TrEMBL record, chain A:
SUPFAM superfamilies: PRTase-like. It holds the Pfam family Pribosyltran. Keywords: Glycosyltransferase, Transferase. Residues 6-161 form the Phosphoribosyltransferase domain. One of its GO terms (molecular function) is glycosyltransferase activity. Signal peptide: none annotated. PANTHER family: BIFUNCTIONAL PROTEIN PYRR. It comes from the Bacteria. This is Pyrimidine operon attenuation protein / uracil phosphoribosyltransferase.
TrEMBL record, chain B:
InterPro entries: Asp/Orn_carbamoyltranf_P-bd, Asp/Orn_carbamoylTrfase, Asp/Orn_carbamoylTrfase_sf, Asp_carbamoyltransf, Asp_carbamoyltransf_Asp/Orn-bd. SUPFAM superfamilies: Aspartate/ornithine carbamoyltransferase. L-aspartate binds at residues 87, 170, 224. Catalyzes the condensation of carbamoyl phosphate and aspartate to form carbamoyl aspartate and inorganic phosphate, the committed step in the de novo pyrimidine nucleotide biosynthesis pathway. It is an enzyme of class 2 (transferase). Heterododecamer (2C3:3R2) of six catalytic PyrB chains organized as two trimers (C3), and six regulatory PyrI chains organized as three dimers (R2). It holds the Pfam family OTCace. This is Aspartate carbamoyltransferase. It comes from Salegentibacter holothuriorum. GO terms for molecular function: amino acid binding; aspartate carbamoyltransferase activity. One of its GO terms (biological process) is 'de novo' UMP biosynthetic process. NCBIfam families: asp_carb_tr, PRK00856.1. Its EC number is 2.1.3.2. Keywords: Pyrimidine biosynthesis, Transferase.
């Protein structure tokens, strides 16, 4: 099993700032926008971006939640192990809001498909956008594309993209792991 | 994630501590789900569940049905009163007929102890025991422990007294197993005639004086006197039972401490508990009912995830 670095800490930092900047470009004051991190790994990315929005763009009044998609997945009873749920925390209604989903890696698109269904439990959003740090293009099973994209990666199915965050894994780095 | 060590929920006796922890952790997520504007998840779209009730029930049956529907399972209901059981069909035949219509899971309440265990050995479906005679009622015990955990932050080390008709109560037996498994201290309290012989062998202590039992406990679980299961008279009169074993305001106020009051329902107001106590702030009777749906969703979800894998 080998791994090589796709993005190092500096590159990640530059990308995060660009993504935050792009969000501000489209959402300005975030008055009608809600940001939703997809559990479990999207939450770290979402919190980083929110930190930049708050500290560098002084957007303080942000609606932010996390969404767990476990109960909406399409592979229930198909895997080896039962699916483990995470906490959903959305204490606002998404009705008529612009929703931005944030997830670290966009791969088959099935998680986002599940998230699209899951978020309907909290109302009917005006629109939904997707922000991802890594886009594994050519691996999609569903017609889903990111609106904001950190880095496109060509990886074969046997390879795995691993995103590590300082607060959880000790360092900011993205690996491509081959089995 | 770990998974349940069992393929059926026949009784708490067959579970281990990790199973209970897993059920509670999963129930936490479902409790969040049932408090959403839209209280439903699509997890069990391709699962069909039969609710077989060979004995009357309102709360448990409704709770199971809601839990199943909030997981998007297809549900068929069956009650013995309107079925071919009356025409002499055996339990296995009844259930196999239902299963041949492609049912994946059976929730069953039955007046005979061990009916669920018997069924699990003879039919191909995941069985959940919703009460079998005076034996076990595992989901009730799980939701009771879940409610204690929610109110007091944990079950381990807590002192719980179960008051009333222990002899005929499946709730008592399942609760004793569940509470002991989680490290609580358990006492049973009631008239001697309604306390089974050798109950101490389950690791519980016995008290026949309600006031003393209440002074000892953190939680009092008040059970109903099950008149329908009594073939002989176990105490002189309901009035006398109430005088000795009723939880009322005067008794609670004499304790100099707050205790949590529970009741699995249905309540016989004025017999085992008075209205002012049942409706007071430290009674978590309606929390128990709400948690019942979340806990049953967790049990069904975890068992369903083991079907055909």
């Amino acid at each position: 099993m080998g791994q090589r670095i796709l993005l190092n800490a500096d590159e990640i930092n530059i990308i995060l700032h660009r993504l935050a900047c792009q969000l501000v470009e489209n959402h300005t004051d975030f008055k009608d926008t809600v940001i939703i991190g997809i559990q479990p790994r999207g939450v770290f990315l979402a919190e980083r971006i929110i930190k930049i929005l708050q500290e560098e763009y002084e957007i303080t009044d942000l609606n932010y939640g996390h969404l767990d998609i476990t109960f909406y997945r399409d592979d229930f009873r198909r895997g080896e192990k039962p699916l483990e749920a995470n906490k959903t925390k959305i204490d606002f209604i998404v009705e008529d809001k612009k929703v931005v989903f944030i997830d670290d890696v966009l791969y088959t698109g099935r998680s986002i498909r599940a998230a699209l269904t899951a978020v309907q439990s909290f109302g009917r959003p005006a629109e939904i956008e997707l922000l991802s740090l890594i886009d594994r293009r050519f691996s999609r099973h569903l017609p889903i594309q990111p609106d904001y994209n950190g880095r496109q990666v060509d990886a074969i199915n046997e390879e795995k993209v691993k995103v590590n965050w300082k607060e959880n894994d000790g360092e900011d780095v993205v690996y491509l792991v081959s089995k | 994630m770990s998974e349940l060590s069992v393929n059926h929920l026949l009784g708490i006796k067959y579970l281990n501590e990790e199973d209970i922890e897993l059920i509670f952790k999963t129930a936490d997520h479902f409790k969040e789900v049932i408090n959403r504007p839209i209280k439903k998840v699509p997890s069990l779209r391709d699962i069909t569940i039969a609710n077989l009730f060979f004995e009357n029930s309102t709360r448990t049956r409704l709770s199971f049905e809601l839990a199943e529907k909030r997981l998007s399972a297809d549900v068929v209901n069956f009650s013995a009163a309107s079925s071919s059981v009356k025409k002499g069909e055996t339990l296995i035949d009844t259930v196999n007929n239902i299963l041949s219509m492609k049912v994946d899971m059976v929730v069953m309440r039955h007046p005979n102890p061990g009916a669920g265990i018997f069924l699990s050995r003879h039919v191909k479906a995941s069985i959940i025991n919703a009460g079998d005679g005076a034996h076990e009622h595992p989901t009730q015990a799980l939701l009771d422990s879940y409610s204690i955990r929610e109110r007091l932050g944990g079950v381990a080390g807590k002192k719980v007294v179960i008051v009333g008709d222990i002899l005929h109560s499946r709730v008592a037996l399942s609760n004793i197993f569940a509470l002991k498994l989680q490290g609580a201290e358990v006492k049973v309290c009631g008239p001697k005639t309604l306390l089974p012989k050798h109950i101490e062998s389950l690791g519980v202590s016995v008290e026949t004086n309600l006031k003393k039992a209440l002074e000892w406990c953190d939680v009092a679980n008040m059970l109903r006197v099950q008149n329908e299961r009594m073939d002989i008279s176990y105490f002189p009169s309901t009035r006398e039972y109430s005088q000795q074993f009723q939880l009322n305001k005067k008794l609670l106020e004499s304790l100099n401490k707050e205790i949590v009051v529970m009741h699995p329902g249905p309540i016989n107001r004025g017999v085992e508990i008075t209205s002012d106590v049942a409706d007071a702030e430290n009674a978590i009777i309606l929390d128990q009912v709400q948690n019942g749906v979340a806990v049953r969703m967790a049990v069904i979800y975890l068992l369903a995830s083991k079907i055909n894998r």
